[in-house]
Amino acid sequence: MRIAYVSYEYPPDTAVGGIATYVYQIANTMHQRGHQVEVFCASAYRTVSEQIDGIKIHRVLCKNRTIFNEVILPFFELSNNHKKFDIVESPEFSADGLAIKLKYPDIPLVVKLHTPWFLIGEMNNSYFGFIKKVKFITSGLIRGKLYKPFWKIRDKQNDPDYLITKLADQIHTPSISLGDIVSTKWDIQRGQILHVPYSYIPNNDLLKIPTNTDTNTITYVGRLEVRKGLVELSKAIAIVLKTKPSVKFRFVGSVQGSPKQNIDMKAYLISTLKKYKKNLEFMEVSSDKIYTIYADTDICVFPSIWENFPNTCLEAMSAGRGIVASKNGGMKDMLEDCSGGILINPLKPNEIANALILLINQKSLRIEMGTNARKKVLYSYDNGTIGLLMEQKYQALIH
Length: 399
Fold this sequence. Notes:
The chain contains 17 helices and 14 strands. By secondary structure, the chain is an alpha/beta fold.
């Protein structure tokens, strides 16, 4: 098959999130299975077409994600005119392949769900209640101004994420939960959304980490933002440290906003946990060094309000860490059937704290769960398993 992956994100130029990791891995997987693969992506500083490890990569200078789908169209046209593509795959997020599908409706389009904008908005707004929003608008009216709301409401009919998904010939979801949500919110029959997890190639450095570590450290890896559940985690941390005062909590990731306006999440956590400031550590680490963080932790905590299919959890599974994770979203798919971690309600700090304390106290349990999780990664998300599944879904569209 001749496959085009259209994605604003692609390493190294636009390796800004999980979409970049997914597209890189699946492009290489399908190339290794004998298919002709081309990637159409953005760059912050160059326009170039290059061949890397057998994959043709077209990078276009584009710093505005909302117009990328139009900017990339001429590059796709040139390659498609040379030899027609059998399949185009695009994320729903920001509708990267929308202009291509509108211009070439006869080429089958697969839309891979990641996390649509409307869902990100709902999660980020979860701490801004009705009263707070009314006060915000009222304060502007008192001053004779109409303040622009800091929360976002997306009109489905004008939402590019929705529009490209409705145009798709096939829809793939990495997690069962995301398929359920999109089906309900966008009025798409659930049977039309196929469960196709991400492929994941674990780093050997992660696989080499012993499961029986004693670092007295609990680590969160990911962006420091509201939707990652850090508000409730801060309350859970206070509970843990009351009984386990020597435990260190490490936060690894870029700092984003908090529920308080004009205060970032790092400052929010330090302020909320000022009594325990000496137990907190914040840092950013490059992806090639992330294994050193997992090697220096016993337990990973991922308390997202909702999360699709996070690579951070797959990394922790590969590292054989004890894991406490949100039951809302794809981490339930990853961990539940293999007893690979403890699933919690991310809105209940006591539940989070109790799970963390249990794994602190029971080293044998976290070793057992870490071993189970590592096995699951190696046999369920490997290139062979996911590559074959993707191949079958693609071929069903062509034939």
